Amino acid sequence: MIEFIIVQTGGGAILGSGTHVSIDAAQIANAEVGECVALSAFDRRPDPLLDYVRDGQLIPYPPRPGPWAVFDVTQEQWTDPRTASEITAESNAQSRAKATAYLADTDWMVIRAAEGGKPVPDDIIARRASARAALSS
Predict the structure, then answer these.
(1) 1, 11, 71, 77: which has the fewest Cβ within 10 Å?
(2) pTM above 0.90?
(3) Cα–Cα distance, 62 to 23 (Å, whole number)
(4) How far is 90 from 73, CA to CA, in rounded Å?
């Protein structure tokens, strides 16, 4: 049984892996998609989510800077495929989510004050006004 991985031609991203009983080295080398490398060339089993191949060596990806990041194996760095408008929209969505969460977390103070209890502190009133303004923009 021969174990192998398929590596992206001209890059190094691991596209897949497998085993085969009768495959020989020539068949591995002539794969239609990418390049094949026998697993015996590595000291451990490659993980396509954690590793890539460069110059016949298994290289772990560096820490990913965010869920949006895409690794460019030719430049050996993470890139951001998002457009400026997508980044702005994501930032706005995060700001809206924070404002909504803050209002929900402090609603009990407003209800308590409305029912004749302790008044809402001034700093909370100001932050709630800011949160509502962020949601209305």
Answers:
(1) 1
(2) no
(3) 33
(4) 26
Instruction: Give me the pLDDT at residue 27, please.
Output: 54
d(CA 121, CA 110): 10
Strands 2-7 and 14-20: antiparallel
